[in-house]
């Protein structure tokens, strides 16, 4: 059975919600608020990238991510997010500084999450359902977590940058990272 | 009890965290490492912090209560019924992501809005959403609503079904009586069927010699005056008919010329209700039954009287056997064709045994397959006069549809040839007009 456009006409509305999300073959229109928020976040990341080459790669990724979230296709969202993340990574590795690395990474992660959340909601509930409140709460909490994480990382970064040898700071952050990852 | 489901929503974020941190370590760039820390924060959020914010009730499946209210629980067919669904957070914690798909009955279509909703609920907070269904004849019960409570990160979803009572009872509208002609198969009870035998009545039949005991009112006084001998007038006797209305409710009868037009079973039921009230008005004994379901399903033997009228109309107006939706599977679908034919013959014989000997049959069927035709001719052979009222669901816009239409008119022709009265009822035609047209043909 097809969802989305036919949701209203269909008499058999109740389906196992999670079954709907498995196939992922036919694109459905995503929940609109999330798609727009994801597009905004993805595009906002681009100006933070320091050099034209990185910005070009990041722009390509952001474009893909935005197009995927608006069209309701997961694959472009993944691919776009990966490209944009690599752009931020290359900037960071190239010595672009904390602001130009952490902020685009944060925005890309938010766009990646919010975009796919909109797609999932679109598949489960159809584009006509009123889902805005849930979408805003989801996007807000994702952003909040990212901002807190980034603030913590940047604070540590600025605290230890001068006082402690870089290697020690790196080791400290790596330890914290691994600790968090071990929960996953 | 709910089913917990870990989504793949955050898959990959750990890899990103390790990649950034690793690159940061290798190149001694703290900025990349800090970016990796952001990704790691998300990994921890999705794995532990997010799911941990959900109350235990979400795991048990009773975090959200669902309530439904209908704008009208006994609407008339076609009327929109607004369904208001209220969700309530029954826990003392925030539910950041509640998704609901309401259990609209399979037999009803959503006319406006959507029965799906997602929201966030603070402790004790209620949220409502509305949609409208189009009422269809029948009794419809809502199924449990499907509720998903997800954690704020979207990493874990608890899915459960929440029951909420709601039913809607849609009866067909009151149908006008449409005079239904009956055939000359009469009962001993006085009524309106003009018989071939002489007796008391209105229309002249014959005269004969006076016999002792003949009523004075029927003595032929003219003859007495002229010839001096006593004679008796005989009039055509009028008797009541016994009619069994059979509605074809097989899957093969659920046919409509277009998706938005009523299908043949709906039309048949309406015609049967109109015939029922007119036949009962005329003093005939009328029974109601289905053709194509087990004989006992909602069968009413011919009868008269106010109670019988109400019961018969209820049987037709309620939608369990005479449903607006086709049966799940055809009755004889799993049998071989020859076996199927034998079973169908037996079914007709069963119906015959059930019918009073003097009963005539009015069969309502679109006649788009051979079975109703065979059954009608067999009823005739078993001694029941048959009238077939056939709503026409065919079209002629494609070659195959034209063929179906031709086949149907050939079937009707053969029925007429076999002595069955046929009312061919076009979809845009009034039943009374179709009956009038058919009656003109019969009287020729």
Compact overview of the structure:
Chain A is an all-alpha fold. Helix content of chain A is 76%, strand content 0%.
Topology:
The complex is a heterodimer of chains A (184) and B (444).
Chain A: H1 17-23, H2 32-45, H3 52-71, H4 74-93, H5 98-125, H6 132-163, H7 166-183
Chain B: E1 3-6, H1 13-27, H2 30-52, H3 56-60, E2 64-70, E3 80-89, E4 95-103, E5 109-113, E6 116-121, E7 126-134, E8 138-141, E9 143-150, E10 156-162, E11 167-170, E12 186-209, H4 221-227, E13 231-248, H5 264-281, E14 285-291, E15 300-303, H6 306-317, H7 337-354, E16 359-364, H8 370-381, E17 386-391, H9 399-417, E18 421-425, H10 431-443
Parallel strand pairs in B: 13-14, 13-16, 16-17, 17-18
Antiparallel strand pairs in B: 1-10, 2-3, 3-7, 4-6, 4-9, 5-7, 8-11, 9-10, 12-13, 14-15
Helix pairs in contact in B: 1-2, 5-6, 7-8, 8-9
Give your account of this protein's structure.
The complex is a heterodimer of chains A (184) and B (444). With 184 residues, chain A is mostly helical. Chain A contains seven helices and no strands. Chain A is globular. The N terminus of chain A is likely disordered. Chain B is an alpha+beta fold and 444 residues long. Chain B has four domains: 41 residues; 115 residues, Immunoglobulins (Immunoglobulin-like, Sandwich), CATH 2.60.40.10; 50 residues, no CATH class; 201 residues, Rossmann fold (3-Layer(aba) Sandwich), CATH 3.40.50. Helices cover 32% and strands 32% of the residues of chain B. Chain B is built from ten helices and 18 strands. In chain B, strands 12, 13, 14, 15, 16, 17 and 18 form a seven-stranded mixed β-sheet that branches. Chain B has a five-stranded antiparallel β-sheet with strand order 1-10-9-4-6, covered by helices on one side. In chain B, strand 14 and strand 15 form a beta hairpin. In chain B, helix 7 crosses helix 8 and helix 8 runs parallel beside helix 9. The longest helix of chain B has 23 residues. The chains are: A mainly alpha (184), B alpha+beta (444). Chains A and B meet through helix 4, helix 5, helix 6 and helix 7 of A and helix 1, helix 2, strand 4, strand 5 and strand 6 of B.
């Amino acid at each position: 059975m097809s969802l989305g456009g036919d949701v209203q006409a269909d008499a058999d509305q109740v389906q196992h919600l999670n079954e709907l999300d498995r196939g992922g073959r036919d694109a459905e229109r995503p929940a609109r608020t999330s798609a727009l928020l994801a597009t905004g976040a993805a595009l906002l990341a681009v100006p933070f990238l320091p050099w034209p080459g990185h910005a070009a790669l990041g722009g390509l990724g952001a474009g893909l991510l935005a197009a995927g979230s608006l069209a309701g296709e997961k694959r472009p969202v993944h691919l776009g997010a990966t490209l944009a993340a690599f752009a931020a990574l290359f900037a960071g590795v190239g010595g672009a500084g904390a602001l130009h690395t952490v902020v685009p990474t944060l925005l890309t992660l938010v766009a990646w999450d919010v975009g796919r959340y909109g797609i999932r909601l679109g598949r489960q509930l159809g584009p006509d359902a009123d889902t805005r409140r849930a979408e805003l709460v989801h996007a807000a909490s994702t952003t909040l977590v990212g901002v807190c994480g980034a603030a913590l990382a940047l604070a540590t970064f600025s605290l230890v940058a001068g006082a402690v040898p870089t290697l020690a700071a790196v080791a400290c952050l790596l330890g914290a990272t691994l600790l968090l990852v071990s929960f996953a | 009890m709910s089913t917990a489901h870990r989504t793949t929503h955050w898959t990959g974020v750990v890899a990103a965290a390790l990649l950034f941190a690793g690159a940061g370590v290798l190149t001694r760039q703290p900025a990349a490492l800090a970016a990796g820390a952001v990704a790691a924060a998300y990994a921890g959020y999705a794995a532990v912090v997010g799911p941990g914010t959900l109350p235990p009730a979400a795991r048990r499946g009773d975090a959200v209560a669902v309530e439904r209210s209908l704008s009208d629980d006994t609407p008339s067919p076609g009327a929109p019924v607004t369904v208001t669904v209220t969700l309530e957070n029954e826990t003392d914690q925030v539910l950041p992501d509640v998704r609901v798909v309401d259990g609209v009955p399979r037999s009803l279509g959503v006319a406006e809005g959507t029965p799906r909703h997602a929201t966030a609920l603070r402790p004790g907070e209620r949220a409502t959403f509305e949609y409208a269904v189009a009422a269809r004849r029948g009794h419809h019960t809502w199924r449990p609503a499907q509720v998903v409570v997800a954690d704020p990160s979207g990493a874990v979803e608890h899915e459960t079904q929440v029951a909420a009572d709601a039913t809607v009872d849609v009866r067909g509208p009151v149908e006008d009586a449409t005079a239904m002609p009956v055939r000359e198969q009469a009962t001993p009870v006085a009524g309106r069927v003009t018989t071939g035998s002489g007796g008391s009545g209105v229309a002249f039949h014959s005269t004969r010699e006076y016999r002792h005991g003949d009523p004075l009112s029927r003595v032929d006084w003219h003859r007495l005056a002229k010839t001096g001998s006593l004679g008796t007038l005989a009039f055509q006797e009028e008797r009541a008919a016994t009619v069994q209305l059979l509605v074809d409710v097989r899957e093969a009868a659920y046919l409509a010329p277009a998706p938005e037009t009523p299908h043949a079973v709906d039309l048949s039921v309406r015609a049967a209700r109109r015939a029922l009230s007119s036949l009962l008005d005329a003093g005939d004994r009328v029974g109601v039954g289905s053709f194509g379901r087990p004989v006992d399903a909602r069968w009413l033997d011919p009868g008269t009287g106010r109670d019988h009228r109400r019961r018969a109309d209820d049987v037709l107006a309620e939608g369990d056997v005479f449903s607006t939706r086709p049966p799940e599977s055809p009755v004889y679908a799993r049998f071989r064709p020859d076996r199927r034919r034998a079973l169908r013959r037996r079914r007709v014989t069963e119906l015959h045994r059930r019918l009073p000997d003097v009963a005539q049959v009015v069969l309502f069927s679109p006649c788009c397959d051979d079975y109703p035709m065979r059954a009608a001719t067999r009823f005739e052979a078993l001694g029941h006069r048959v009238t077939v009222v056939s709503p026409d669901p065919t079209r002629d816009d494609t070659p195959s549809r034209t063929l179906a239409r031709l086949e149907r008119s050939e079937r009707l022709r053969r029925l007429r040839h076999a002595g069955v009265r046929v009312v061919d009822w076009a979809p845009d035609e009034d039943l009374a007009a179709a009956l009038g047209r058919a009656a003109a043909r019969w009287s020729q």
